[in-house]
Hints:
CATH class of chain B: Mainly Alpha
Low-confidence stretches of chain B: none
Low-confidence stretches of chain A: 1-11, 28-33
Helix content of chain A: 25-40%
Largest interface: A-B, 37 and 38 residues
Largest sheet of chain B: 2 strands, antiparallel
Radius of gyration of chain A: 25 Å
Number of domains of chain A: 3
Structural class of chain A: alpha/beta
Number of helices of chain B: 13
Oligomer: heterodimer
Radius of gyration of chain B: 23 Å
CATH class of the largest domain in chain A: Alpha Beta
Shape of chain A: globular
Strand content of chain B: under 5%
Number of helices of chain A: 14
Number of domains of chain B: 1
Amino acid sequence: MTGNIRPSAGFTRRTLLATGAAALAMPMLGRRANAATTELTMLAWYGHAEPDMVAEFEAENNVKFVPKYYTGGDNMLGLISQSPVGTYDVILSDAEYVQQLNAAGFIEQLDPADYAFADFFPEFQKFPGHWVDDALYSVITRFGFLGVAYNTDALTEKEASTYNVYWNEKLKGKVGHFDWHLPNLGQMSLLSGNKSPYDIDAAAWEAVKAKTMSLRPQVGGFFDYGGTFSSLENGQMLAFAGIGDWITGVLEKNGAKVKSVIPEEGGLQWTESFSIGKGSTKADLAKKWIQYVTSAKGQAKSAQMAAYPAMVPNQKGWEELASTNPDEAKRQNMVLGQPNAMDMIREGRIQYRQLPIQQGLEEWNDFWSEYKGA
Amino acid sequence: MRRSVSLYGLTFSLPMLLWQLFFFVAPLVFLIALSFWTVRNFKMEADFNTINWVTMYGRSVFWQSYGLTLALATAAAAITSVLAFPCSYAIAFKLSPRMRQWAIFLMVIPFFTSYLVRVYSWQIFLSDNGIINGLFASIGMGPFPLLNTVFATMIGYLTLSFPLVVLLQLFSLIFIDRTLIEAAHNLRCGRIRTVFAVVIPSARVGLVIAALFCFILSFGDFVSPVYLGGGDPTTLSILITDTTKSGQQWPRAAVIALTMIGTLLAVAFAAVGFAYKGRTK
């Protein structure tokens, strides 16, 4: 047909109509082609449904992810509770919120046989909170440590290796807080000598509050995700509480003079895991995604996710990363067969970040507001 | 004389009425209802419980934030009005009509860029290693702490409202009856005295409304206190996010929001009352 359209021959009415019809039909053809593409909704922290993570899976499975990004566990719970059942096919959650998701009936039970738990480090094969007895509800996909984040021009690693550095005279007005009470107060609890930082009695809680309040004159600000990045990057804050390599790793890779260290009092561990949303009509595809992202290849991608790096629980993912990006494997201390990040967990230097056990979440949050206003 | 509402008049005012009903009254009613709901295990439940009001009003941090936000917004309104007045005065009285058009255009341009972007760019100027401290360093001074201070927050408020305040002041100054100014000069009234005795009283409505807009924008602003003030101290807008961020306490956040709305309504009524005081038709 295109042979009829010769510039020199001029357009007859018939060719014009035929061309017009073909042109009009093109979007329909495109729509037909797209009709086969399945949309998979993902509720997650920013970055998890970006091309560096999902492009390959999308192409292989003719899927298009539709992400809804949240800015914290409470925000996530709010979004789910305010949405109709089945709105989200895949849900990424921090460990402490999986139990809440399950209690509220927002996530489906999973079959452990579907996932490569045998390849996971033993510590992550039956992660607390993800299981109710032998029933699985969420599959861990990545984790990281929270410690002291510091400017390498201002502090040495040795100086930063204790939470007491926040009180250092040269950091007056230069200590930043990631504005969320849970990691900050968890660190203060570790500093106060609580082995289980979130399971503390009333007296220990009072001591944590007093210790935290004594830090207030040193504090230069309370920052959200973006503010934390910029104030560390431009040197406005020289030390940061409540964060770890998930922020400094990104900055470090871009040349900023910042680093995170796990101090002698111990560090905290954050964990992200994937669940399938209750009532999802695409549960099979959601399962396929979780299988992909917890496979060796998916785990290596996850470890070097552009938005924020993390460690991964699958040992084969470590091997894959070491062969495809040895520098990053080394930077994150994720190399098998030598002292690595898992040793810190095994030596008991890392505690899970979790919701307070003996106090209400509200009590911790209210204190945080008072601390900020002090 | 009693005015009857004609169908013609109603037809034209209907869109505004519907707009107000759907986008102001209905959400406000919902917000009021929400403030009496309760939260259990992260889920909001419809209820009629005064616990949120009692809890929020019983917290010192709430009143502290309230006082601080009120003071900051009042200061922003006063500072912006004082700084904007010479600018709007010059545009209204000293520039040719053509130059005035250009000046108005220049005042509109800042609105082309996102406020968030403008605030972020201020960080480049105000940080310890930023442009301003760099200039100080070149003459052997500083660095001075500029970012993450109340001063920086105020810069942000000015960024937000200065062009608008200038425009509002300007439109009120432009329409001042010039014969009044000439009369003042003929009666040997000096330039400065003319400004205070003739210009400002004549433009009172516009000046007060401009200050009111600055107060409203600053009172509810979240961006400047967080990104320039470093979230320290806590303003009411920050307290709202803190309250919702943990434990899904939207009902308590509704209490803060309603208190803010109440305050803004009271200030707006007082300001408008003051602006039109003594005026007759």
